[in-house]
Amino acid sequence: MGLRAFIAKRLVYSFALVVVILCFNFIIFMLMPGDPSAFLMPVDPSEAMTPELMREREQLLADLWGYGQPYHIQLVKYLKNLLSWQFGKSFFYKTEVTNVMNWRIPYTVFLIGGATVIALVIGVVLGIMAIQRRGGLFDSGSVATSLILNSLPTFWIGLLFLLIFYVTLGWFPNAGAFPREWAGGKGPVPFTTSINFSSNALVGVFSIDAEQALKLIGGFTHHAFLPMLTLILFNFGGWLIFTRATMLVTISEDYVITARAKGLKERAVLFKHALKNASLPIVTSAALSFSYVLGGAMITEAVYTYPGLGRFIFDAIAYQDYSVLMGVFYVLSICVIVANIIADLLYGILDPRIRYG
Residue 294 is part of which domain span? Predict the structure, then answer.
């Protein structure tokens, strides 16, 4: 079986897996306590609403949103809608879930994706340095620091950073993803386009204002710095310890001893020989970490009021917004499955002994 047959087999298997995951998600949401239609019930200031009228209105809402139908009919509609990328309307936002999700995804990818990449690079490099100085002060100190930072709650780190860098020093903002004045349409617009039609040609002109572009990048980076720093400090220690553990296994292998016997420098032995084989479990963990990027970091985004998917999920849980939760869980499931496929393909690149057959 070649590479194409392997990919085709994995795609068929992944589609079946997505359907099974959706069925389990449907069962979980059906078994959850509470009724999301309670948030849609109008408030009666006179408190004259009788229990019979209350049940009648609840039934009307259930019929309107589809809750009054049998479970098997709901399941079929649920599968059909999610597989066709129709997540329905949000109870809380009163609009299509995809509309709200689409403008939140770039913020989450920028914040969580950037923090994951930086934490991964820092953790792997420091893990190799710890192996290079194993048994020494740097090794012991880096492991102890990683364990301490990884055990601290992210909300505590976030509140501490807000106290220091916002309240005390005033260096960084406390909330949002961009300066508040941009919300009124006063933000920088660095890109301009113009299209000219003629009988012979279609001419398009694209120009960029470098100064405004730098202001745009600086504004988003300035607001994302503290939440990104929080996530980096919380995550890099895990990568450091994981890299150190995998490297400890490979540095005693025969090919590493042979590389040292040839007179290669220790840095070349660790980075070019030991790391390549130790990277297989790191690739698996990295793929899963990147697959959860769209899930956001609920606590961190809630502390910094960052408008990503993590805050989106946090609000959806608070208001029992099932449409949002079902849509986000579906997207996360697809990301995890795709990440596993990519990890399997990377195995063949990193380790020539692996064959797709």
Answer: 3-33+85-350
Q: Is the CB of residue 217 less than 8 Å from the CB of residue 208?
A: no
Number of domains in the chain: 1
Q: pLDDT at position 352, please?
A: 60
Domain contains 73: no
Residue recorded with tokens 């113009």: 194
Does pLDDT of 109 surpass 80?
yes
Considering the chain, what percentage of its residues have pLDDT values greater than 70?
75
Query: What is the CATH number for 227?
Result: 1.10.3720.10
CA distances from 168 to 33, 247, 304 (A): 43, 42, 16
Residue 300's nearest CA partner among 238, 224, 239 is: 224
Burial of 44 (0-12, 13-18, 19+ CB in 10 A): exposed
Q: What is the pLDDT of residues 168-185, one digit of tens each?
A: 888 888 877 777 776 665
Question: Contact 104/312 with Cβ under 8 angstroms?
Answer: yes
Whether 112 maps to a domain, the answer reads: yes
Asked if the structure places residue 40 within a domain, the reply is no
- What average pLDDT is seen over the chain? 76
Amino acid at 250: T
Contact 88, 67 (CB under 8 A): no
pLDDT in tens, 297-333: 778 888 888 888 777 887 787 777 777 888 888 888 8
d(CA 279, CA 246): 8
DSSP letters, 60-124, are HHHHHHTTTS-HHHHHHHHHHHHHTT---B-TTT-SBHHHHHHHHHHHHIIIIIHHHHHHHHHHH
* More confident of the two residues 247 and 190: 247
Q: Output DSSP code: residue 42.
A: P
Say if CB 139 and CB 130 are below 8 A apart: yes
Task: Say how far apart CA 299 and CA 315 lie, in whole Å.
Answer: 11
Q: What b/e sequence results for 175-203 when a residue is b if at least 16 CB atoms lie within 10 Å of its CB, and e otherwise?
A: ebbbbeebeeeebbebeeeeeeeeeeeee
Query: Structure tokens of 111?
Result: 């914040």
> Which residues lie below 8 Å from residue 290, measured CB to CB, with a gap of 6+?
113, 116, 335, 339
Q: Is the pLDDT of residue 264 over 60?
A: yes
